[in-house]
Amino acid sequence: MSSLCRILSSSRSVATNLTRGMASSPLTDMLGKLNHVAIATPDIEKASQFYRNLGANVSEKVAQPEHGVYTVFVTLPNSKIELLYPLGEKSPIQAFLDKNKAGGMHHICIEVKCIESAMSLVKSKGIRPLAEKHKIGAHGKPVVFLHPKDCGGVLIELEQE
């Protein structure tokens, strides 16, 4: 664990102790703000235009070959929407669209202070990460996905702030 993560982790422990008895737990203390909701779409241009027509700030389409997707980010006042479109036949988004022809919500992303501490904590709670090691996500920050079977049927991405 990096020294920065140790410092952040220990400060979270202090916060946990201070808020004990206030419906707090290490897991709820770990979670930050909602970063984005990701939507898989069979037509990323049409989906992008939909949000532009509503007056939203919509990014250009960016290839993310290491993740097998194209992304477009729709910036909202308090969060973002991530539009996902397959990049290549082996894209995990292609598999999702094969099952959900019209597209739909793919995952939610929640910020955490330290991805390493978050991974340790979720594992200790019996929540399975989809990978043993974090990856670098579309924002250039460390991310890890959590198994939907352990998260009420929702694919959750944790992203370091």
Query: Main sheet, how many strands, which sense, barrel?
Result: 9 strands, mixed
Determine the CATH superfamily.
2,3-Dihydroxybiphenyl 1,2-Dioxygenase, domain 1
Radius of gyration: 17 Å
**Under the CATH scheme, which class?**
Alpha Beta
Keywords: Cobalt, Isomerase, Metal-binding
Protein name: Methylmalonyl-CoA epimerase, mitochondrial
GO molecular function, one term: metal ion binding
InterPro entries: Glyas_Bleomycin-R_OHBP_Dase, MeMalonyl-CoA_epimerase, MMCE/EMCE_epimerase, VOC_core
Overview of the structural elements:
- The chain has a single domain, classed as 2,3-Dihydroxybiphenyl 1,2-Dioxygenase, domain 1 (Roll).
- It is 30% helix and 31% strand.
- It contains five helices and nine strands.
- Strands 1, 2, 3, 4, 5, 6, 7, 8 and 9 form a nine-stranded mixed β-sheet that branches.
- Residues 1-22 have low confidence and may be disordered.
What is the element layout, followed by pairings?
Elements: H1 3-18, H2 26-30, E1 31-40, H3 44-53, E2 57-58, E3 62-64, E4 69-75, E5 80-86, H4 92-99, E6 104-112, H5 115-124, E7 135-136, E8 142-146, E9 156-160
Parallel strand pairs: 1-5, 6-9
Antiparallel strand pairs: 1-6, 2-4, 3-4, 4-5, 7-8, 8-9
In short:
The protein has about 160 residues and is α+β, with helices and mostly antiparallel strands. It contains five helices and nine strands; from the N terminus they run H-H-E-H-E-E-E-E-H-E-H-E-E-E.
List keywords for this structure.
2,3-Dihydroxybiphenyl 1,2-Dioxygenase, domain 1, 5 helices, alpha+beta, disordered N terminus, 161 residues, globular, nine-stranded mixed sheet
